[in-house]
Every structure is written in structure tokens, then in C-alpha cells.
Amino acid sequence: MRTDPAAPPADSAVVRDALGVGVAVGLSGFAFGVTSAGAGLGLLQTCALSLLVFTGASQFALVGALAAGGNPFTAAAGAFFLGVRNAFYGLRLSALLELPRAVRPLAAHWVIDETSAVALAQPDRRTARLGFTITGLTLYVLWNLTTLIGALGASALGDTDAWGLDAAGPAVFLALLAPMLSGTVERAVAGLGVLLVLLCQPVLPAGVPVLVAALAAPAVLTVHGRMTRGTEPGERR
């Protein structure tokens, strides 16, 4: 029986990539801990956000809106809509991973940008499960540990605004987003979203511009769909 000599290296590559993503992103939890403390949240509140919410962009959006003086409900709504994307990841990962029913509720908590990216990049179910598990475990442990360290060390840093750590969250989010802007449609959605935020920021309460920017996706997709249908050979006149 012929064996596949590429299987062990493939597993090694998956482990390496998963650990790389988990460590790189997990360490940014320190910035969240400091930013959250600077926004006025207590140690327990900050740690609870990382333990229970565990989606970095939504966490940064929430504390950022609160730090800017936004209404808590508006801030929570903005964070919620940013987190909705994970539900769509879950639909794709559910079919790919086919995990036992007993572990699905726990696995759902780890369905985020990074675990989805690593899992979906794998060639088969076994390596997808491996990548998802290692990325999720590494990221969850490090993110929560560094969140705790950041929240505890915020007072020692003094004025957190002077360190510019409030920019760490958006910087990490942009770093994760940039590789996804591979096509014209994705770039158009991102560009329109930025434009909407810039236009709404001076006139709307903190957190609301993020909600308005969400309209960029359906707007661009609608225009793109009409343009695509209009160029189909069967519909030319």
C-alpha cells in the first residue's frame, strides 16, 4: 500500500501556521486590556469581555465607542453588528468541520476571523480541524492572558492616550482585513465603508458611523449584481 509522504509535513505546516496566527494576534490582547481600562471599564468587566465575547474587533469597537463618550447601547449595537460576520463563518465551518454535536457549542465560541481563515485554507477535513483547534486554543489562552496583563498594567502606564495604544486595535484589525481585499468588489466595499464613516463621524454619535458603514456591503453588491447581469451574453440587445 502506497503511503503519502507529504502528510506529515502538511500537518507540521498546519501547526506552524496555526501557532503563528494564534501567537501574533493573541498578544494584541494586551492592547485591548490597556484600552479597556483606559475607557473606564473595571478589571472584571475587561476580562469578561475577552472570556465571553472573544472577538477582538467587536471588543475594540465597544470600548472605543465608550471611550469617545458614546451611548452604551449604541456602542453595544456597533460591536454586535461587527460580530455578526462570525455567524456566516459558522455556516461554512459547520459543513467543513462536521464536529460532534457535543462539542459544537464550545467550538462556536472560537469561530472568529483567524480560526476561520486557517481552517478554510486547509485541503481536507482532518487538517481543517487541526488548524481550527490549534488556532482557537492558542488564541483564546493568549488573548485572555494578555488582556488580564494589560488591564492590570494600565495604571502603571499612566496616561494610556500618551502611549497611543488606542491605535493598536484598529491597526490589528486593518492588518487582518488587508489580505482579504483581494478583489474589486471587496475593495469597493472597504472604500465606501471608509467614506461613509468619514462623512458620518462629525455629525453622528460615537458608534453610529460603524453601523452606517455596514450599508456599504449591500450597496456595492447590488450595483455589482446589476452590472454583472447587464453584461451576460443572453441579455444583450
TrEMBL record:
Keywords: Cell membrane, Membrane, Transmembrane, Transmembrane helix, Transport. It is found in: Cell membrane. It is a multi-pass membrane protein. Pfam families: AzlC (PF03591). InterPro entries: Brnchd-chn_aa_trnsp_permease. Its main location: membrane. The chain crosses the membrane at residues 20-41, 73-91, 130-156, 162-181, 188-204. Belongs to the AzlC family. This is AzlC family ABC transporter permease.
